[in-house]
Amino acid sequence: MARHKGLTFYEKKKRISREMVREIFVTLFYCFAAVLLAFVIVFSIGMKISMIGVSMEPALYNGQEVLINRFVYKMLSPKRGDIIAFLPNGNPNSHYYLKRVIGLPGERVQIINGYVYINGELLAEDESYDKIADAGIAETEILLESDEYFVLGDNRNISEDSRSGNIGPIKKETIAGRAWFKMNCDEETMGLVK
């Protein structure tokens, strides 16, 4: 009988111990708890609404779903450039409007020759905004009260906003919150609203 010289390997059978099963279940439990907690936090301070119309293109598109942060303005005030959700004149029977904050409380806002002026000075804005064809009520200077904001749609000439007599300046109490995340129309992904 010939013997083979060299190394021989024996494969040890792995056993699933109670400790390993326990670790797997604990890990799964913590993952589930973290996801549940994140879901509860997002939806307790958030609100999902749909963009209606083309007034905020290209930032937001018609039918695009947007998650609104309802908590942020309980601690802070809206700032210039924020996209806010509000009910026009506080009307609960209306849908939420999404517009960009242009004028802040105490400021004087006027639209002259298609451009926005704040306190008599031209507002420095992105060149992608169209020249405003209709100044509406902002043709004459508007002095915002201590709780009022002046808002415009990004698609300036196809927007019903603070220039419209039936909307006018937005009272802080009618603001639901700030646009937080948007669901992309072509992909099922979320992105920050800018």
Automatic annotation (TrEMBL):
<dbReference type="InterPro" id="IPR019758">
    <property type="entry name" value="Pept_S26A_signal_pept_1_CS"/>
</dbReference>
<protein>
    <recommendedName>
        <fullName>Signal peptidase I</fullName>
        <ecNumber>3.4.21.89</ecNumber>
    </recommendedName>
</protein>
<dbReference type="Pfam" id="PF10502">
    <property type="entry name" value="Peptidase_S26"/>
</dbReference>
<feature type="active site">
    <location>
        <position position="99"/>
    </location>
</feature>
<dbReference type="GO" id="GO:0005886">
    <property type="term" value="C:plasma membrane"/>
</dbReference>
<dbReference type="GO" id="GO:0006465">
    <property type="term" value="P:signal peptide processing"/>
</dbReference>
<keyword id="KW-0378">Hydrolase</keyword>
<keyword id="KW-0645">Protease</keyword>
<feature type="transmembrane region" description="Helical">
    <location>
        <begin position="21"/>
        <end position="47"/>
    </location>
</feature>
<keyword id="KW-0812">Transmembrane</keyword>
<comment type="similarity">
    <text>Belongs to the peptidase S26 family.</text>
</comment>
<dbReference type="InterPro" id="IPR019533">
    <property type="entry name" value="Peptidase_S26"/>
</dbReference>
<dbReference type="InterPro" id="IPR036286">
    <property type="entry name" value="LexA/Signal_pep-like_sf"/>
</dbReference>
<dbReference type="InterPro" id="IPR000223">
    <property type="entry name" value="Pept_S26A_signal_pept_1"/>
</dbReference>
<feature type="domain" description="Peptidase S26">
    <location>
        <begin position="30"/>
        <end position="182"/>
    </location>
</feature>
<keyword id="KW-0472">Membrane</keyword>
<feature type="active site">
    <location>
        <position position="55"/>
    </location>
</feature>
<dbReference type="GO" id="GO:0004252">
    <property type="term" value="F:serine-type endopeptidase activity"/>
</dbReference>
<keyword id="KW-1133">Transmembrane helix</keyword>
<dbReference type="InterPro" id="IPR019757">
    <property type="entry name" value="Pept_S26A_signal_pept_1_Lys-AS"/>
</dbReference>
<dbReference type="InterPro" id="IPR019756">
    <property type="entry name" value="Pept_S26A_signal_pept_1_Ser-AS"/>
</dbReference>
<dbReference type="GO" id="GO:0009003">
    <property type="term" value="F:signal peptidase activity"/>
</dbReference>
